[in-house]
């Protein structure tokens, strides 16, 4: 008899990011499609808007402190919008003229909201869109920090911009888990644990701040290692089970999900045609 399970074994990933950890916890099957099979993952208005706003704020903080004015921020928003007109993530959205106008307005509004949250001339940034990685056993943890800065006492502060809704108090801890991940990366790479980690919700103007500790860092690494072991087990057993939630309404892979009458085995062949793009060899 042919060992079907052995034939179907997937390659275990050697690195994880905060978004990939949450992806697996939210739906193992969607994680398999995007992170194991590496099927096309089409951009959405929300993800593209978020990337554009991040780019505008990056451009803003590349300017000298004295030039961080409201007018300069407007110009940075315009520059990011112009830059994204040719970006695949924007082009693939195929927006109508009215939708483009609304998209641009929402991006400019989110960028402008930033100035109501802090004085940019007081920010002592030392890293923008900073890519970091660190090993945990055989696994590599990686992430991109939106902004790394120094507080008045010279301590590190990690800031993460968010363009979605601020979470309810019951979900704040989960929202901060990704930033604790970045705190661990800072401690591993720079030898210093940040004094604070912050989520700046540009839509509502709210800022959630937490102080990382040795305990929170240990919890994060323990949790991530456990997720990685669960991923490895799923790869070995070819057991990536779908998990229904509100996220299903926005999942690009819904047509291949058994929960919706689909066949996961067809995704690799059909996704490049249906979703566009090519599956990496």
Percent of residues in beta strands: 15-25%
In the CATH hierarchy, what is the architecture of the domain at 122-223 at level 2?
Alpha-Beta Complex
| Mean of all residue-level pLDDT scores | 90
User: From the helix content, strand content and strand pairing, which structural class follows?
Assistant: alpha/beta
The topology string of helices and strands comes to HEHHHHHHEEEHEEHH
Put simply, the count of helices is 10
Shape: globular
Helical percent range? 40-55%
Cα-atom radius of gyration:
20 Å
- The CATH class designation of the domain at 122-223 is Alpha Beta
Instruction: Describe the sheet with the most strands.
Output: 6 strands, mixed
Q: Determine the N-to-C terminus distance.
A: 29 Å
CATH fold call of the domain at 122-223:
Lambda Exonuclease, Chain A
Number-wise, the strands total: 6
Pick out the low-confidence regions.
1-8
In words, what does this structure look like?
By secondary structure, this protein is α/β, with parallel strands linked by helices. Helices cover 45% and strands 16% of the residues. Strands 1, 2, 3, 4, 5 and 6 form a 6-stranded mixed sheet that branches. Helix 4 crosses helix 7 and helix 5 packs antiparallel against helix 7. The N terminus is likely disordered.
């Amino acid at each position: 008899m042919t060992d079907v399970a052995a034939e179907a074994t997937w390659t275990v990933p050697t690195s994880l990011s905060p978004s990939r950890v949450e992806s697996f916890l939210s739906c193992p099957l969607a994680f398999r499609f995007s992170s194991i099979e590496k099927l096309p993952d089409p951009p959405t208005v929300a993800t593209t808007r978020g990337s554009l706003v991040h780019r505008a704020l990056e451009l803003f903080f590349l300017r000298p402190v004295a030039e961080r004015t409201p007018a300069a921020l407007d110009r940075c928003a315009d520059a990011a919008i112009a830059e994204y007109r040719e970006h695949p993530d924007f082009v693939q959205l195929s927006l109508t003229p009215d939708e483009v106008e609304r998209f641009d307005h929402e991006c400019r509004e989110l960028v402008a909201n930033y100035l109501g949250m802090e004085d940019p001339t007081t920010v002592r940034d030392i890293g923008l869109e900073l890519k970091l990685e660190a090993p945990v056993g055989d696994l590599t943890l990686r992430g991109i920090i939106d902004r790394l800065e120094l507080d008045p006492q010279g301590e590190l502060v990690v800031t993460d911009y968010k363009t979605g809704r601020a979470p309810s108090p019951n979900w704040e801890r989960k929202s901060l888990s990704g930033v604790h991940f970045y705190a661990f990366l800072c401690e591993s790479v720079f030898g210093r644990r940040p004094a604070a980690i912050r989520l700046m919700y540009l839509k509502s103007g709210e800022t959630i701040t937490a102080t990382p500790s040795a305990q929170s860092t240990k919890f994060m690494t323990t949790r991530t290692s456990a997720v990685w072991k669960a991923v490895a087990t799923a790869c070995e057993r070819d057991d990536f089970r779908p998990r229904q939630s509100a996220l299903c309404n926005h999942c690009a892979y819904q047509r291949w999900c058994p929960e919706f009458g689909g066949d996961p085995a067809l995704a690799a062949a059909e996704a490049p045609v249906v979703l566009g793009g090519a599956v990496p060899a």
